[in-house]
Design a protein that fits this description.
Number of helices: 4
Strand content: under 5%
Structural class: mainly alpha
Order of helices and strands: HHHH
Distance between the termini: 16 Å
Largest sheet: none
Helix content: over 70%
Number of strands: 0
Length: about 110
């Protein structure tokens, strides 16, 4: 039973992004979304740590953030914060899907 440190790190970065958005710009929306998605990502990492096949919450959270922040990046072409979150969420998707493929072949 390995701890999903990458998933927990991702959750911390998402939450930190929401807090930074609030502190720098006074954006309550950034704070709420960052804390909500950070919490969902942390719960997903916890679930994946308990059962490596239980990745659906992590997959949904990172997929949603990849799409939402990807659209924001395409509209603004600003790397911070939308581009960075798109990149991190995309990397999480690759990690999760690659892990699903490896587990399928090992079963």
């Amino acid at each position: 039973m390995a701890v999903d440190w990458i998933g927990f790190s991702y959750a911390a970065l998402v939450s930190a992004g929401g807090i930074i958005g609030y502190v720098k710009a006074g954006s309550v929306t950034s704070l709420a979304a960052g804390l909500l998605f950070g919490l969902l990502a942390a719960v997903g990492a916890y679930l994946a740590s308990q059962n490596p096949k239980n990745v659906w919450l992590s997959l949904g959270t990172s997929g949603t953030l990849a799409v939402v922040m990807g659209l924001r990046f395409l509209n603004s072409w600003k790397f911070m914060p939308a581009g960075l979150m798109t990149l991190l969420s995309g990397l999480m998707l690759v990690k999760i899907i690659a892990g699903m493929q490896n587990k399928r072949h090992k079963s």
